[in-house]
Amino acid sequence: MFHPRHYTTCLLLLLFLLALSDFSMSQSQSPWAAKKKRMKEKVRNMFYHAYDNYMTYAFPHDELKPISKTFTNSLSELGNLKLEHLPQDYNGSALTLIESLSSLVIMGNNTEFERAVLWLSENLTFDVDARINLFECNIRVLGGLVSAHLLLSDSSKKLLQGAYNNQLLVLAEDLGKRFLPAFNTPTGLPYAWINLKYGVMENETTETSTSGCGSLILEMGALSKMTGDPIYESVALRALRKLWSMQSSLKLFGTTLDVATGQWIEYSSGIGAGVDSFYEYLLKAHILFGKEDFWKMFHSAYVAVQKYFRHGAWYHEADMRTGRATYWQLTSLQAFWPGLQVLIGDVMAANSSHREFFHVWKRYGVLPERYLLDHQMIHPTEKYYPLRPELAESTFYLYQATKDPWYIEVGESIVNSLNLYTKVEGGFASIKDVTTMQLEDHQHSFFLAETCKYLYLLFDDSFVHDNNYVFTTEGHPLPVLSNWHEELPEAYVPTNWTFVKRQPRVSRISSMSLQVCPALNLKSGQHIESACHIPDARSDFRCLTDEDCGVDATTCRRRSCSMAGFCGLWLFR
Ligand code: DMJ
């Protein structure tokens, strides 16, 4: 017989077990929540240490020299390795302030953001005799202004109500107009250099890079959407299409080319310097503007990269004509690639290369600019680490997709290294030589635009909760707006995917939950396969079990292995 005393004992036992499980639950959850909170504060302090010192010692010049506590008017030096044609009479364009705008909003400092916007509205001018790099000025200055204007136009953010009369858009349009003469070439491919006041200089070099003419479409396209003037989008698109037509029969691209003749100069390329953001912008343009063409281009380029450049978890360089490996090198810039892979749901591949980059980071304390894979050593001259963001960026995307707390630990390790090796009294200094940790007197503006931003978002992603954003290659957020999307054919729009047709603004749980890839409706009643489906890696890759396929980052759902051995996201099973 069951005695009431037993009943009471059982109840007490049950309550005890519940309390215990509750306790252990909170034990298993709270340490991560507490760590994230602590780390977020650390990153905030880093950002303000960099920002306040810039404002004290360098503003309104371009960048801070944190060791000598002075400034550099470096806009005309960006990408200008030989420091040619430097201006005589140029006093800077508050580059670091422009680059900090979206980070201030993400960190919730609306007051400082508004103060910065008002200062820029009243003081910034692009009528300066300075020869600048079109790509750098586009991603840093135009991107910073366009993104800040879009944040100001978002009524839910309640920024500068009444006091904002599109001043940043006026500045952005003025800058966009100054870019236009660069596109006046026989091929439509833009010159790499332009003088903001006088246009293309006499005897200007006709050599440029793949990313220099293939990654302008987000900023220029956004400018066209906002101003209603199609010219910016159309010149960027024309250049991109011309570049596309120059791919080899293996669907590969080179690194440098001639804008006058449309001939390649450097046939070897990879996913790093000179090419990186070209691939990035094909996918991100598809997300931002919804055009099917961008997806097709990205898909074909991505498959070629995985086929010819990938070697296990590493990516080497190859000759675009033969596909033969040229340089076996890991570069710090390549570390953005896993983040891009997360956006298409190729999480397994992203995770394995990210681990290798982090392994090198741990070995040296930071990522050296170039590491020779075949000799397992740092490149003899490229030993520097200029506070680059790429590893932090990929860590943020991978944590969004997997919620694996290991990435929080990676972020913590990055933060600790930055504080240990690069923090000085007057800001954060670049590292000249990672083998000695000797510093260099330069705090790059992307440290505020990207490095601090991605680390902050890793520990606190509330900014991406209310809206879907595409982050430009310089980390400036652009909201995904349905009225910027081209109409997609009905068959490509799943019935539950309403925002393209109806919603005025995308509202999803996080940026990762956006279905970036339209699903293809084969036949009613049949399975619908996500277009994100990409046969992984080498052309001979076949998965055996679901375990081989990882998580789809756009929906956070596990991908599964099809009967034919392909990883995919099977939406209706
Ligand atoms: C940034 O200016 C951008 O991320 C660019 O695409 C590549 N390099 C730097 C940061 O490393």
TrEMBL record:
<keyword id="KW-0378">Hydrolase</keyword>
<keyword id="KW-0106">Calcium</keyword>
<dbReference type="InterPro" id="IPR036026">
    <property type="entry name" value="Seven-hairpin_glycosidases"/>
</dbReference>
<dbReference type="Pfam" id="PF01532">
    <property type="entry name" value="Glyco_hydro_47"/>
</dbReference>
<feature type="binding site">
    <location>
        <position position="473"/>
    </location>
    <ligand>
        <name>Ca(2+)</name>
    </ligand>
</feature>
<dbReference type="GO" id="GO:0044322">
    <property type="term" value="C:endoplasmic reticulum quality control compartment"/>
</dbReference>
<dbReference type="GO" id="GO:0005975">
    <property type="term" value="P:carbohydrate metabolic process"/>
</dbReference>
<dbReference type="InterPro" id="IPR012341">
    <property type="entry name" value="6hp_glycosidase-like_sf"/>
</dbReference>
<feature type="active site" description="Proton donor">
    <location>
        <position position="136"/>
    </location>
</feature>
<keyword id="KW-0256">Endoplasmic reticulum</keyword>
<comment type="similarity">
    <text>Belongs to the glycosyl hydrolase 47 family.</text>
</comment>
<dbReference type="InterPro" id="IPR044674">
    <property type="entry name" value="EDEM1/2/3"/>
</dbReference>
<feature type="active site" description="Proton donor">
    <location>
        <position position="369"/>
    </location>
</feature>
<keyword id="KW-0479">Metal-binding</keyword>
<keyword id="KW-0326">Glycosidase</keyword>
<dbReference type="GO" id="GO:0016020">
    <property type="term" value="C:membrane"/>
</dbReference>
<keyword id="KW-0325">Glycoprotein</keyword>
<keyword id="KW-0732">Signal</keyword>
<dbReference type="InterPro" id="IPR001382">
    <property type="entry name" value="Glyco_hydro_47"/>
</dbReference>
<feature type="signal peptide">
    <location>
        <begin position="1"/>
        <end position="26"/>
    </location>
</feature>
<protein>
    <recommendedName>
        <fullName>alpha-1,2-Mannosidase</fullName>
        <ecNumber>3.2.1.-</ecNumber>
    </recommendedName>
</protein>
<dbReference type="GO" id="GO:0005509">
    <property type="term" value="F:calcium ion binding"/>
</dbReference>
<feature type="active site">
    <location>
        <position position="390"/>
    </location>
</feature>
<dbReference type="GO" id="GO:0004571">
    <property type="term" value="F:mannosyl-oligosaccharide 1,2-alpha-mannosidase activity"/>
</dbReference>
<feature type="active site">
    <location>
        <position position="276"/>
    </location>
</feature>
<dbReference type="GO" id="GO:1904380">
    <property type="term" value="P:endoplasmic reticulum mannose trimming"/>
</dbReference>
